[in-house]
Amino acid sequence: MTTKYTPDHEYIRVDGSTGIVGITAHAQEQLGDIVFVELPEMGKVLKKGDEAAVVESVKAASEIYSPMAGEVVAVNCLLTEEPGLLNAEPENGGWIFKIKITDAGELDTLLDDAAYADLTR
Amino acid sequence: MAEASSADLKQTPLYERHVTAGGRMVPFAGYALPVQYPSGIMAEHKWTREQASLFDVSHMGPSVLTLARPSGDAEADHAAIAAIIEPLICGDIAGLKPGQIRYTLLLNDKGGIIDDLMVGRPAERPGTLYIVVNAGTKEGDFALIAQAAGDRARLDRADNGGLLALQGPEAAAVMAALLPDATRLGFMQFGTFDWNGVPVTISRAGYTGEDGFEILVPGHMAVALWDELLVDPRVRPAGLGARDSLRLEAALPLYGHDLDDSVSPIEANLGFAVSRRRREAADFPGARRILAERDGQLTRKRVALIVEGAPAREGAEILDAEGSVIGVVTSGGFAPSLGKAIALGFVPPAATAIGTRLQVSVRGRAQQAEITATPFVPHRYFRKPA
User: Fold this and answer.
1) Alpha carbons B25 and B222: distance in angstroms, whole number
2) From CA A64, how far away is CA A53, in angstroms rounded?
3) Using CB atoms within 10 A as the burial measure, which of A17, B29, B215, B322 is most buried?
4) Cα(B162)–Cα(B198) distance, rounded to whole angstroms?
5) Per CB distance under 8 Å, which residues of B are interface residues toward A?
6) Which residue has better confidence, B6 or B307?
7) For residue B351, what are the contacts with CB-CB under 8 A and spacing of at least 6?
8) Distance set, CA B61 to CA B11, B280, B352 (Å)
9) Do A57 and B245 touch (CB under 8 A)?
10) In the predicted model, is pLDDT for residue B386 greater than 70?
11) What was the pLDDT predicted at B2?
12) Looking at the whole model, is its pTM more than 0.90?
């Protein structure tokens, strides 16, 4: 299992041919209290960088972009009832959606732990 | 993002306090101000509704207009100073009692709102007015008032000091420990008090819907006052984010968003700010339009909406039940006290009845919305028993 990051603070945790996407702890901290999450539709086909979801804090809406190309095969419905999960455990229970990865090669274009840590330092 | 660099931003006397407390500083009306502290907007909002919060509103524009040649007769001097400002606004200033402050509107010739402001008649200084304008408009407002005053009065800005807003149900109890005399003020009354040898002007007002006080303090004492208020465990600092969500729940309009120089007082649902004497005299800017609108010749009116689903933000289109665009959201967001999305916006008069089912367009998707009574959360101002 590998976790990679975008400069826009999304993560993708890849296990075989699927990847779980969410926002980093750093991102949720910057956004503040999250009050609404708009999830992608199941089956939606995304290119790398496509807008996939929207996370809304009290102040503002922020788009979440897909870190890699793929088809949405699961969404985290818990976030509809409990958007605060995204603040509480962004990299575990607060994941947003899961994709079936189209091009595993795209993984190499993303930031690894060290590079992401540098970015947010 | 095209934001002013922090070097261009003005700092309030409390800047260091915000930074030390972990405030997230953002540019706002030319100032660096905290949008939130580490506890977050939601916690700060709820704390204000349950206890008391302290806001730095030093970016706003307090000022004093003073008659150049007072006669020494308090009533005559008040009438003279009121006569200087009244031609610019729609409020009855001549009729203010000593120690009373009023919410009013600066208007242009077309009846559009240049700013919303507070004008007060100090009890202890006849022939002067205490005027507080918005941060974003203060340069223009001050120029307009100074021009109207000419050599009849002098406008002294007091916006280099500290202006602190203590807001919430515990605000009066907190004030009782600091300046007990100030707790005798009723809603929309103000006075000057001695605090540690410096004069502070305290008004029982705010913009959160809660009981509370706004305290104008000389700049060199602002930090000391801030610190002393925060010693009370019932008081926590709150930022611009909570201030905005609180005023939205209170359905109070925000200049530059819900109000601008095209919007009239009647359209803005601020008809109460057009005082009866002024209405009868029709002697304020844009009177013809405003009085016609008051008689029903109106094309749009500010309403409050409960929104189902995602928050509808400023700029979102308001649609009728059939999907035709009929208006626009001017302020919108999530109401922490209600746990749902709310919005203010403008729609045609036919769609303003409470309970009217409408829609809002959020990211191209139509969501259900309903016209609701204002405020969203009941005001809890302190009314003195008659």
Assistant:
1) 18
2) 5
3) B215
4) 13
5) 35-36, 40-43, 45, 241, 244-245, 309-311, 313, 333-334, 336, 341, 363
6) B307
7) B303, B320, B326, B327, B358, B371
8) 14, 30, 34
9) no
10) no
11) 38
12) yes
CB contact under 8 A, A58 and B309: no
Q: What is the pLDDT of residues A106-119, one digit of tens each?
A: 999 999 999 999 99
B35, B40, B363 member nearest A33 (Cβ): B40
Shortest distance, CA A1 to any CA of chain B (angstroms): 33
CB within 8 A of B64, min separation 6: which ones?
A: B128, B129, B130, B131, B155, B156, B158
Q: How far apart are CA B89 and CA B108, in angstroms?
A: 9
Q: Give the C-alpha separation, B122 to B192, whole Å.
A: 8
Q: How far is CA B269 from CA B37, B252, B347, B350, B375, in A?
A: 33, 10, 12, 15, 12
What's the gap in Å between the CA of B127 and the closest CA on chain A?
Answer: 43
Whether residues A58 and B336 touch (CB distance < 8 A) is answered with yes
Contacts of B247 (CB under 8 A, 6+ apart): B207, B208, B209, B254
Q: In this complex, do B310 and A59 lie within 8 Å of one another by their Cβ atoms?
A: no
N-term to C-term CA, chain B: 53
Cα–Cα distance between B265 and B320 in angstroms, integer?
Answer: 24
Contact B334 A58 (CB under 8 A): yes
Conformational region of residue B69, where left means phi above 0, alpha means psi within -120 to 50, and beta covers everything else = beta
Q: How far apart are CA A72 and CA A47, in angstroms?
A: 11
pLDDT-derived band at A121 (thresholds 50, 70, 90) equals confident
Chain B: residue whose CA lies nearest to A57:
B334
Is A36 in contact with B341 (Cβ distance < 8 A)? yes
- Those residues whose C-beta lies under 8 Å from the C-beta of residue B21, and which sit 6 or more positions away, are B34, B37, B38, B237
Confidence of residue B8 (pLDDT cuts 50, 70, 90): confident
Strand partners, B37: none
Q: Which residue of A has its CA nearest to B309?
A: A36
Tokens 């926590």, located at residue: B236
Mean pLDDT, rounded, for A63-82: 97
What's residue A112's pLDDT?
97
Contact across the interface for A35 and B311, Cβ inside 8 Å: yes
Residue B324 and residue B58: Cα distance in Å, rounded? 43
